[in-house]
Every structure is written in structure tokens, then in C-alpha cells.
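FAQ: What does the model actually see?

It sees only this:
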Amino acid sequence: MKSKNFLFLILFTTRLFASNFFEELSVSKNSAKSIGMVASLASDDIVNSIFNNPSNMAYDKNLISVFYSSVLDGILNNLSLSFLYKTPKNSNFYKTTKIHNLGICVFYNDIDLLDTTNLEFYDINQNGIKDVGEEIIYQEENLLKTNNSNLVVCLSIARPLKNLCVGGSIKYMFSKINNISANVTTLDISFSYFLKNYLSFSFKVNNLVNTSAVWSTGYKESINLSFEGGVNYTYKFNRTTNIKIGLDIGNTSNGYFSMGGELSYLSKYFLRGGFSKVSISQEHPTEFLSFGVGAILKENIFIDYAIKIINSLNEKNHFVSLGYNF
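And it is asked to produce this:
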């Protein structure tokens, strides 16, 4: 387990500093349903849409959901609380703005990783994975653990326009690594088009206004513009059984490709699975396999579970979500 955990720390530390950390944080998934299906940008996962695709969160009910995961014996812990509010059509706010839904998500994670404070902060951003990994390995026995805590507060809106829906998100992100910290506010915008009841397309622009996060060391981290696109197709076998197939692609994390599906029975019981390939760098892609199950209880309580297998680590990570519609 030690070697697996250490390899994870090398990959995470490299990803943290060699790529743009806040860009990674801004596209975190916050539901077990989206992790189980993997390709979920254009899916009907309302909880994930609040954080990752606001144009797809138009919904006729209020919703509250909590998401939790503990990865690699507690090295990485994720906790998220999401709330969706349907604006009453007779309210002055709706009459003025035509905004159908308001969404709020608070996402927090806590990571215990190797102390890299004795490595030059600026050099880490300029080195490749091989250089950073070797330097950490050579000093493994002399390094102490450090803590990285991250917080994202996301406010999203959605406005339907017939078959097209437009959404936007404002995200405040804060990160602290020992006594080093930074914060930044970003803006995302997305569009979803629904073709009848079986086909949907989504397009998202992350970090619409190019901005920068200034770390307390003085290092200035650019938050770059990135794009994501997704398609979701639903096929009805019969009155009781449906299958959904999704495909996502984007240039976040130096590029990723995901595909997955969901089999549903009576629109209450769900079986999910998918595959994703993420490029930590052009030379070091990382592949993930995910599987999940879900159920809707008493028409307004939903519970989802997912397991993600990281191929390079041969490690299984678990995720769970619980939600309530009202």
C-alpha cells in the first residue's frame, strides 16, 4: 500500500504544480452519479450540473444533496453540499430575469501529501513529471507530511429558451498548502440543446474571463480559458428499461476523453459504467474505469454509489451521494 500511496502522491504533486491547479479544482465532480457514468456533462445529473454545467440544471423541483469520498486510506477526502432552488414563476425575480433555477454548491477537499516546501516553488512549475518525481523519491525518507485544503463556493443560474438552455457559474476558490495560500474567482458559461427526449448536447466555456491567482509566495498562476463538450443519447428498450450513452471531450487537464453509460429500470434503479483518459502531461496519460449503482426511494430520495479504478495505481476509490427532492 505504501508504494501505491507514494505513487499517487507523486502524480498528485506533479499535477498540482506542473499543471494549473485552480483549473483542475474548478472542474471537480461533486456527485457519485457523474463519477459512475464518467461522461456526464450532457447527462441529467442535476447535482453535477450545478457545479459543472449550469445550463443543464433546469429542473422542476428543489433539491439538496451531499457527496463524500475518502480515497487511499484518507489521503484525499472530498465533501460537497449542493442546493438547487426553482424560482416561482409568479415571483418578481422570475418575471424580471426569466431565470428558472438557482444553484449553490460548496465543495471542499483535504489532501495529506508529502512536504515539498523544501523544493523550489517556482522550479516545480517548470519541471516535467520525471524530474519532480525523481527529486521526491530521492528525499522520501527525509520528507514530512503536509496538508493541502481547498474550498470552492459556486453560484449557478439557468435560463431555458425553448430547446436551448443557457447557464452561468461564478466560482470562488481558495487553496492553502501549509502556510502558502491563494484565492481566485472565475466565471463559467454553458449551453445545452435538447432534441426531443432522447438527445442532448452541451458546450461549456471554463474561466471565461482570463484571470490569475497570486500565491502568498508571490508566484502568479494564470487561470486559462478552456472548453468542454458533451453529448448524451437515450434509447428506450421498452416501457421499463432505458439506456443512456454519453461522450465528453475537453482540453482541461491538458485534454481528456470520457465515455460511459447508464442502464435504468422503472426510472428508479440504475447501473452505470464508463472510461476516461486524462492527460496529466502529453507523456503521462492516466486512465480511469468507473462503475456505479443508484436508486430513487419514495420518489424523492436518491442514493448513488460509485467506484473508480485508477489503472496506473491499481487502486479502487469509493464515492457516495445522498439527495432529496422537494
